[in-house]
């Protein structure tokens, strides 16, 4: 077992903290700022509660399913309840982890396994938390807890294994996903769409004033998402190296591009750029650059950001209204669509030397063939996510009921689900 | 009951929020010593601007207004209406309303004084 | 003097920032969200002001008392006003620090002394800030300033020396405290209890509506505490190493366990899990894992979290009411009780190989004898903290008066202590 | 090309995140908390929008102008659109960057160029964002966008080149500026003053109640500024080394000194220390220590903080009223004045061994001659900033109009510039 | 003074907040052109739910309500009472009250019109 | 219309906020079953404290007050005024006012009851 690198380990510890910051309080604020006053606390505590629940699910089973060697389809149970995690610790020091150790595709790292699994845990946390935007304001809290456990194990962990395990079958297709465009964003976005459709529209939609209660929260939340995304993307380099540097740079540029893109479209279409629009665009840019961050150059990232900002404006502002589903906070409109845009453009803008590794010295370069592979990976993710999410939703709805009663919805989730209120 | 020698009226004005300071000053000049202000939302001929959040249009039916209430002696009512009208007018729709109603009794809590002495 | 390690130094610089983030704005928000509207600003500025004051106290005297070699009871004055701190700096580079240099128990590190003392400063800051939760809403600001200076020098620094200096007499008892369960949490919690009793109950308690003004702030604050706690606990490994990785992992798991623990008890007892309950439970889990973080495995951490979440529910929600003191924001109920739970369970779950060092190759393992040592350390901390806190409170109360007048209390501290208000 | 150091790179990645955190959400909150309710969102989105815009400006042209070799006056265009930034990347690894490579004054680093340019980008972002405090509540958003682009290219980039490029002519004068006292703070503060005067006073000033809408936001913002400032100052050591450690320590001490300084003056003058005062003082201390952070000892930092806290109280609270300009949120009063205080005191307290380098083994020591050099640098910055800012303001005012109409101002910028409002 | 030919009444309704949109629509159908809305808290037979924060029980004596005020001509009062009653009723305790009081004068600030012309 | 056998009055009290609980209790003891509370800001003899933010002085003209409104039968008015006066008095300036006005009709939305039965 080789030694860890303290610099790389330092950066991955920080990246873990940054990705956690994205969910709590980042996403909690981003979402809570967009709901009505009566749902502010419940919206925040959904992200927080998911953070608690998934942490436990992850150490018990989720990590084993996703990242132990196993087969191309799913991990084995060798890290059930993290057994064996401390085997190599000697006087507080740990050796470096190798993903898929012993297989032909093993990926040696320079950080301990404890750090790798903690970092991955934060990804497992944010994915179902993103999803909650789709059914904001009408979900029963108890049902959400059960749904989250099942969804994490049956949807998130398998897809993570397929895409990120060196043995995973989607990875084998040749598609690339730097930091989770498919696993996190498309996955949660598409699952959100399914949930939004199955749970139905909010009571009073199109009639009542459902304007956001406190956009200041949404802006703070978006800002923390942005900052935390450095951990998400530059952290996915798994070390403090040149790829991390480029990933941070492309992340910044795409976020900026997304903000400017949405702003310009809105200015042109509605005569005014809104604050919510600018921050939504930045988030869309961040989503879209996620699969691309370590593989593209800053110029490509700028294009990805601008395009994502523009397209997500349409999906959130136009498409949703046309199709009539109520994806309340645009989990699909921003994360699903933005993720798809990014995954595909990664296949266009990928720059070989950046993505090259010892085992693949040419790296991945943009072009038709890579684009096709990206389409495949996106398709696979969507199919699995749609089917399993629908199934889980159906089961939990039968067992507990996913949606609160109409009167509870009108009184607000804060009061009815938690017995609390903003003063 | 009714209007005795010390008849008092409650004058209520609904105005645009940014006119509050102007109206307060105008009333103070008239010697009105007290008033009570409430933040309200009004629905009337003036329509709220349509706000668009991520493409969803919300017609804001209710527009922020300020309600001013002041109890004054009968005979001051015309002056006060005049002063408020002048100070609160912008000439555009939504400038608001003034209403007058009868007050039968008034007490100053601190001293127990009643009637005009309580103003 | 040996060279520093840049990776370790990097992580410790970050950890310092993270622990500062816990106090401002983390704790400031957590506490401010639970008070009434009229006390929001004053509650926040108490944490902020303490941050300013203790920073100065620390460099003038506090650090010297706590971390210079001195005797088993107290440090000497050799770093008064940090004199000599730059002696080893050469062209901007500094050597690595050795705690207790020259003694038989010297502890060599891989970071400069400036970083070590800054990191420790953030601990010295948060401890009196935590305490303010006990007398929220009725303390005079001027008295708080004076109290803080005295308390930091007479309570915090001595206990820190006893427990963390390699020569300290409590350390000599064989008790272990990874990141400050006794020094920070039990200490501030118990001192808070003393203050709550001595200052008396809030005016109108049990009659007026004292429900929290803005729980959204409390949730944000708890989230920032959680994120910052990575610096607190994983930073206490003093480097970016395997122990830091495990400490971060156990911290996360215990926080999650605490949140779930409190939630479940509340669900069962009151029929509804509250947002405030879930975040309080997470904080309780974080408190409890603090002494244990680098010494226990994830499974042990989960138990510590769940137990702390459940017990702190009882201490904050049941015990306090029964005994009738007004520990307004549960400084004792969460930090005191959670700290005690954690310190004792550390003696149960400690895992030898994790805590082993070159000088103690067997490490500390859980069991009856270790549990006894933990009880001793907890007892010593409580006794000193209670006695000295009571003395300092009494003196300052004589000199300045700790409590505002009843009318000031009813008007609120924002207006009466600072001449400001939330609009 | 030599190899990067992972520890240094890790710290610089983090520092970048921390400085971004200063602007969004730190500064956004700090400023938004001080304006009236009707301008909260617009104030926040100004910082956020500037973050988007300057990111793009920086990669297109700004970075080239500031940090490529060029002449003593301005960089060349060799990094236009960051072309060539990935030239040295091999299998995702990058070599270390040398600033001014090939010249006699070249400055070798231990981090990749991508990281260096991202770090510098965050400085380029915060500088125009700070400036917005001067014309809060009356600026047209479209004009601000155009103004920002021009100002970044014509004011920020040139001054950054003069002071920080090893070839820059101001650097050649022998003045030192550790982390941006002149380039960032004096520059934005003075430019803010020019803008405040040219745009005129707010409607209703001195008559209407313009008291801050939500000082809780201002306190949170100040706290995040403080935490983020560790990246700003300790990050300016460009590595995780002894200088970074000392810079973090002096930053903390000066912030604390500033908070206490302002608090004491206010207590003495108005009988009460305000929350806004304490946090403003801390920010003033942070501003003032910026040029000094890596060059002075903790004692000097404490003096710098205390002095800055006191003087900035006078400039914001007394001087502004006397002179009658409406620098609404004291961009000049805190950043301009604080920056000048700090730049001058750097010339007093600089300690040779700290600032020594291989090429300048004696380092910079405080004294009359150094003070004079500091005065020169401050003077040069002020002159350029005043002249060019006035010119840009005038041009944009002609083209678009910098100020909203009086009715828009009274209705508030949220509604009129963005069509949104806080509920 | 008093009730002349153009007698006007102030109808005040205290209702449950989520009924606001229903009531506004019902009134608009009756041709009521303006109304003013205030967020209030009510104390009555309906008791607030007990909220528990960290085990401390707070009986929330005051429940969020909406107050609607509209000035209308005398003769419309019965219709309006009927419309509000229908729209705001849930049949459960706490549905609220309607009160009618006399208004002696009404002025439109924008134009200075008085009486029913000001409505 | 007018005052029939079941005459009712609207008693409005403007008080200091921290006296709300005291007044509510005093009224409850008198058997008042319902009241409605509004957060208002008052301008009167009591001047707001001058607040200083970064040296800028703001005279806060408007001071936070609470408005209590309760409709009661004619004959209860004197008792109620007495009770409010007692409970709300601090003896210092700014204690507030009580006003009485006539209410012509009252309806309980839930049941449609009118007059005193609606109280
Ligand atoms: N009949 C009414 N009763 C009570 N308030 C009214 C009435 N009509 C209007 N208002 C109030 O006056 C405000 C202004 O009225 P509006 O019809 O918009 O314009 P204008 O005052 O120019 O006629 C409304 O927003 C509402 O608050
Ligand atoms: N006498 C009263 N005067 C003023 N407002 C009242 C009065 N009684 C009730 N209210 C208001 O009406 C609301 C509903 O009354 P409540 O007694 O709870 O139920 P209901 O309307 O079904 O009788 C109260 O919350 C209060 O705001
Ligand atoms: N004429 C009035 N009309 C309406 N409200 C008034 C009037 N005078 C005073 N008030 C209200 O009563 C409050 C207290 O009045 P103030 O003159 O300050 O003291 P006091 O009640 O001791 O005479 C004011 O803040 C205001 O809300």
TrEMBL record, chains A, C, D:
Top-level division of the source organism's lineage: Bacteria
Keyword Hydrolase: no
Limits of the Ammonium transporter AmtB-like domain: 11-420
UniProt cross-references to Pfam families, sorted A to Z: Ammonium_transp
Topology term for the membrane: Multi-pass membrane protein
Parts of the chain that traverse the membrane: 12-32, 44-66, 116-136, 143-164, 184-203, 215-232, 244-264, 276-295, 301-319, 331-351, 371-396
Localization (cell): Cell membrane; Membrane
Coiled-coil boundaries: none
Secretion signal, residue range per the UniProt entry: none
Primary site of residence: membrane
Keywords: Ammonia transport, Membrane, Transmembrane, Transmembrane helix, Transport
Gene3D superfamilies per record: Ammonium transporter AmtB like domains
Annotated family: Belongs to the ammonia transporter channel (TC 1.A.11.2) family.
Protein name stated in the entry: Ammonium transporter
Organism: Bombella favorum
């Amino acid at each position: 077992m080789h030694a860890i690198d303290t610099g790389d380990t330092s950066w991955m510890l920080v990246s873990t903290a940054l990705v956690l910051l994205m969910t709590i309080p980042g996403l909690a604020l981003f979402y809570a700022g967009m709901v009505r006053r009566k749902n502010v606390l419940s919206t925040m505590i959904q992200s927080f509660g998911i953070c608690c629940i998934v942490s436990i699910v992850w150490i018990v089973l989720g990590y084993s399913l996703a990242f132990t060697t196993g087969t191309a389809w799913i991990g084995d149970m060798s890290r059930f309840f993290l057994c064996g995690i401390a085997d190599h610790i000697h006087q507080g020091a740990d050796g470096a982890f190798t993903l898929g150790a012993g297989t032909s595709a093993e990926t040696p790292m320079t950080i301990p396994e404890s750090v790798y699994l903690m970092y991955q845990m934060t990804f497992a946390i944010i994915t179902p938390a993103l999803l909650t935007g789709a059914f904001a304001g009408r979900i029963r809290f108890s049902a959400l807890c059960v749904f989250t456990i099942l969804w994490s194990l049956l949807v998130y962990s398998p897809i993570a294994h397929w895409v990120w395990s060196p043995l995973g079958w989607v990875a084998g297709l040749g598609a690339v996903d730097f930091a989770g465009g498919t696993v996190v964003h498309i996955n949660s976005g598409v699952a959100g769409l399914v949930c939004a459709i199955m749970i139905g529209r909010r009571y009073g939609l199109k009639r009542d004033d459902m304007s956001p209660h406190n956009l200041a929260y949404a802006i703070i939340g978006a800002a923390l998402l942005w900052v935390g995304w450095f951990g998400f993307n530059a952290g996915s380099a798994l070390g403090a190296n040149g790829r991390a540097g480029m990933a941070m740079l492309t992340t910044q540029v795409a976020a900026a591009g997304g903000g400017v893109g949405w702003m310009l479209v809105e200015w042109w279409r509605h005569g005014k750029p809104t604050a919510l629009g600018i921050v939504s665009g930045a988030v869309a840019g961040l989503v879209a650059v996620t699969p691309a961050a370590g593989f593209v150059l800053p110029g490509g990232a700028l294009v990805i950001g601008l395009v994502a900002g523009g397209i997500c404006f349409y999906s959130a502002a136009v498409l949703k209204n046309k199709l009539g589903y109520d994806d309340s906070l645009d989990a699909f409109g921003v994360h699903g669509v933005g993720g798809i845009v990014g995954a595909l453009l990664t296949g266009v803008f990928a720059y070989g030397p950046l993505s090259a590794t010892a085992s693949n010295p040419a790296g991945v370069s943009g072009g038709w063939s890579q684009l096709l592979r990206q389409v495949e990976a996106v398709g696979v993710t969507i199919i699995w996510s749609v089917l399993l999410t629908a199934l889980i939703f159906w089961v939990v709805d039968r067992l507990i009921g996913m949606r609160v009663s109409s009167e509870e919805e009108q009184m607000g989730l804060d009061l009815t689900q938690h017995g609390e209120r903003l003063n | 009951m009714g209007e005795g020698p010390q008849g008092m009226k409650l004058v209520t004005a609904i105005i645009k929020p940014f006119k509050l300071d102007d109206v307060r000053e105008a009333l103070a000049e008239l010697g009105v010593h007290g008033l009570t202000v409430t933040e309200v939302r009004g629905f009337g001929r003036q329509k709220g601007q349509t706000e668009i959040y991520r493409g969803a249009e919300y017609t804001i039916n209710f527009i922020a207004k300020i309600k001013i209430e002041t109890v004054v002696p009968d005979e001051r009512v015309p002056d006060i209406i005049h002063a408020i009208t002048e100070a609160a007018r912008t000439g555009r729709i939504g400038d608001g309303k003034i209403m007058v109603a009868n007050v039968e009794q008034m007490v100053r809590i601190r001293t127990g004084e009643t009637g005009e002495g309580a103003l």
